[in-house]
Amino acid sequence: MSSTTTESPAESQSSSLMSSRMGSLLAFAPLSVWTLWHLYANLSAYEGPHAWEAAVTAQRAPLVEVITSTVVLLPLILHTIWGIRRLRIVKVNNVQYGTFDNLKFLLQRLSAVGVVLFLGAHIYKARIEPMVMHGRHETFGDISFQMHHHLPTLIVYILGVLGVAYHMANGLSTGGITWGYAATEKARQRLTLISYLFFVLLLGMGWGTIYALHNAGEHDRRTERDITAPATGPGVQSAH
Ligand code: HEM
Asked: How far is the CA of 181 from the centre of ligand 1 (A)?
């Protein structure tokens, strides 16, 4: 909320702190928890198409669909609006102040832009397009095929997951400071360490899924080729 001439500096400061806290709370409580769960569910790509579809895209009751989407998408939209307003007040001064913390501050803003672009593309391709065009959820065959044979898809997922992992992990640490969990130098170091571990965890889960889908995409193509044009030469193995 922007300050007005009737607000005292103390009131203005406290409303800005309130807005910061709301912004980070929305990002943490439903969004980070949901993203962790989403990436974990996606790891079932290692167990094959049925396990992945049951974990990630299973048909849910319409009411459950609406509740899930509201719990995820509403905080996402609110956090994005809050973030865009904060982006406007950024002054880039990394040349004058080349500290690591200042670099992380800049990367947090850059990754925010990347995450918005990634999520727009991801939600459209993985959720809206299959629903609108085919009246169903994304299938394992489609996503793994795209991951293996469509390089732009692979690159978007690799960079998108990197951006999300950085934005969430670093946001956890800056959010912790806003909430007062880094009052001492030791607490600040602990929070930074937790955020690095969180980054590695998110990146490992996301890139691990991409790796599994990418490999499965190759397997699907072999299966298709073997079925349509059975090969007889040496070195060609059946996929079954
Ligand atoms: C390894 C990478 C990922 C894969 C394979 C993947 C896969 C999917 C799929 C298949 C859907 C559609 C689900 C359905 O039809 O019910 C989906 C939805 C979604 N994904 Fe991902 N995802 C990945 C990473 C991410 C990341 C890093 C985020 C960041 C927050 C994210 C956010 C979302 C959101 C917000 C939705 C829409 C949820 C809804 O409308 O209920 N995804 N994802």
From this structure: 30
Q: Is the CB of residue 35 below 6 angstroms from any atom belonging to ligand 1? A: yes
Is pLDDT above 70 for 109?
Answer: yes
What gap in Å lies between CA 197 and CA 87, rounded to an integer?
26
pLDDT range class, residue 102, cuts 50, 70, 90: very high
CATH number at 78 reads 1.20.1300.10
Ligand 1 atom 11, closest CA = 126
* Mutation probe of ligand 1 site: the residue of 32, 38, 69, 198 with most atoms within 8 A of C-beta: 38
The number of distinct structural domains making up the chain is 1
Do 130 and 143 contact (CB within 8 A), yes or no? Answer: no
